[in-house]
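User: Hey, my collaborator sent me this sequence without any context and asked if I could get a structure. I don't really work with proteins. Can you help?
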Amino acid sequence: MTNIFVGNLDFGATEETIRALFEPFGTVERVSLIVDRDTGRSRGFAFVEMADSEQADQAVAALNGSKVGGRALNVNQARPKQAGGFRGGRDAAPRGRREPRW
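Assistant: No problem. I've predicted the 3D structure and written it out in structure-token form, which is a compact way to encode the shape of the chain:
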């Protein structure tokens, strides 16, 4: 299974329109359009899972830089999620609750 990152999407993009972009290259297992939790509006990127890695490579090569909805897509193989991600330290207090520094 190959996971593909699709960035710079038009905010009106749907999972169906993204699937339609990738299906000419092979079987699309899943499309995950990332949406804002508060508004439900697209955040402008998605992940596409394709079963065959050769088909996924063809899709990446063909679609990267192509214009869809007036925007040039950024399409590449997704990198694995980084472990951690939380930056600790003295600036780690939640916003609005920081102690003054003096």
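In plain terms: The chain is about 20% helix and 30% strand. You can pass these tokens on to your collaborator as they are.
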